[in-house]
Amino acid sequence: MIIEHIDTQLPGTVTDRHAFRGDQTIVIAKENLLAVVALLYREGFQLLVDITAVDWPEREERFDVVYHWLNLASQERLRVKVPVADGGTVPTLTGTFKTADWFEREVFDMFGITFDGHPDLRRLLTWSDFPGHPLRKDFPLDGGDPFCMEGCTAPYNNGERG
Amino acid sequence: MSELNINDAVMTTRLDAVVNWGRKNSLWPMPFGVACCAIEFMSMMASRFDLSRFGAEAMRFSPRQSDMMLILGTITNKMAPVLRTIYAQMAEPKWVISVGVCASSGGMYRTYATLQGVDRVIPVDVYVPGCPPRPESMIYGVMKLQEKIEKESLSMRKDHIARFYESLARQEAIQAEKNQTSQQTIREMLMDAGERGVGTIF
Amino acid sequence: MAHPASPFLSVLILLLVAAVTAIAILVLSGWVLPLLKPNNPQAAKMRPYECGVQPLQGGARRKYSVKFYLTAMLFILFDVEAAFLLPWAVNFKQALWTFGAMLSFMATLLVGFIYAWGKGAFEWER
After folding, report:
1. From CA B88, how far away is CA B169, in angstroms rounded?
2. Which chain A residues are Cβ-neighbours of B77 within 8 angstroms?
3. Residue B24 CB: number of other CB atoms within 10 A?
4. From CA A68, how far away is CA A81, in angstroms rounded?
5. Which one of A18, A84, B24, C14 is CB 3.0 to 4.6 Å from B149, fit for a cystine?
6. Per-residue confidence (pLDDT) for residue A161, from 0 to 100
């Protein structure tokens, strides 16, 4: 339903879509994010449930910033994915949704994605001079801890010691 | 060559016996409760499992007023300097019981965020495994600590505490010199120690 | 020869027990305890406790409004006046001139009260 609205009023913004067992997902480009968000807000999707990101290291545009919305009136949920490259920035949603403040700080902390116009973009879960961004696929699970017992493996660092 | 027996190294006297009796029967816990093991601690202090029969009823959340620190829960790398500061502010004689597997060894969390065992940053006397340990296990841990205290002597030197304060001074010096956060300093000290094959920073 | 116990015997026993207890506490804590307790003064141990984080820069002293001081001062003045009024109130009927004396005392304080009122010392929200 909401996807038809988006197609009618902002044609061409939805680059990909899929649905699975009742949920619906659309993929849009980051240039269209603010317009789509304004439309969603008007249509009643006023609860921003979550902002997170996924790292696809083989892809050109490495990260997918994932937003979830809930329409409290119609109980409809929508997932929006925005691909962004390493070093690219995404416009912030803190103007419309105050809760986006800390969600975006968490995404910045874990992935290193910066948000344009964010009032206070700094690390949230790790300490302020933590080296690296932990949820990227090339960050070792144990953080490069040299004190490892014989035979333990840390995923995603090519099986190197640590 | 005969091995050095603890009984040969430590000579206890009647005065020691009296002092140790007093200390072991009035261990006032300071619960450093951060996670699920704290719930089991609450259960242990309540009437069914009752730790106050051992003299430990006066549970103080201040390091100044307690002599036994119980580390209850997962300690993250972000929390490590806080733990060190609070341990430093306890008055001697002081003992540490690390309760649960997260505090003893990092538990099921072998990650960048979790401190792999609290004995990497502070000296620990008794480890109580479990996830979470049953209150009876925790009481057994306190009893083991009591047995350890019985064997102490007034003339015994507590090297581990002196080394802890030295490491705290080193940490602060490095922190001031490099203008880093305490967490990053501890992390780097741990990495250095790990490279040398040493598991602790004190 | 038995002599009757003096009524002050119990007081003497109390005095002796109190003296012995006080001296015992002093001796034990001054001479015996330092031999038994560990003594390890460390800089990190002496710092103010602030839940394990660095203490507030510059301490916790902040500038605060003078109205707290004013209120306390005015309270003291009028509370002392009330304290003087109480014993007078019990037996001023014995002589007439005491009534007049107290009235003049209260008049002096009344002048001060009107002055403070006029200056706005009683307004909290200024």
Report:
1. 11
2. 127, 143
3. 20
4. 9
5. B24
6. 45
Where does residue A12 fall: left (phi above 0), alpha (psi -120 to 50 degrees), or beta otherwise? left
**Residue B113 and residue A134 in contact, taking contact as beta carbons nearer than 8 Å:** yes
Output the average pLDDT for chain B: 89
| pTM exceeds 0.80 | no
In whole angstroms, give the CA distance from residue B152 to residue B24. 10
| CB-side neighbour CA atoms (13 Å) of C58 | 3
B199–A147: do the CB atoms touch at under 8 Å?
yes
Q: How many residue pairs bridge chain B and chain C with CB atoms within 8 Å of each other?
A: 37
Q: Compute the distance between CA of residue A21 and CA of residue A156 in angstroms, rounded to an integer.
A: 31
Tokens matching residue B18: 């009296």
Disruptive mutation site among B34, B89, B180, B202 for chain C (greatest number of C CBs within 10 Å): B89
The crossing angle, in degrees rounded to 10, of helices B14-24 and B135-150 is: 160
Calculate the dihedral angle through the C-alpha atoms of C99, C102, C104, C108, rounding to the nearest 10 degrees.
-160
Q: Compute the distance between CA of residue A16 and CA of residue B32 in angstroms, rounded to an integer.
A: 50
- Among A152-161, B31-40, B75-84, the least confident range: A152-161
Residue C120: what are its φ and ψ, rounded to 5°? 85, 20
C-alpha atoms less than 13 angstroms from C-alpha of B86 in its C-beta half-sphere: 26
Does the pLDDT of residue B70 top 70, yes or no? yes
pLDDT (tens digit per residue) in B78-136: 999 999 999 999 998 999 999 999 999 888 998 899 999 999 999 999 999 999 999 99
Going by C-alpha positions, the residue among B150, B162, B38, B149 that lies closest to residue B95 is: B149
A88 — phi, psi (to 5°)?
-80, 165
**How is residue A56 written in tokens?**
């696809």
Chain mean position to CA A36: 16
Q: pLDDT confidence of C93, banded at 50, 70, 90? A: confident
Helix, strand, or coil (residue C74): helix
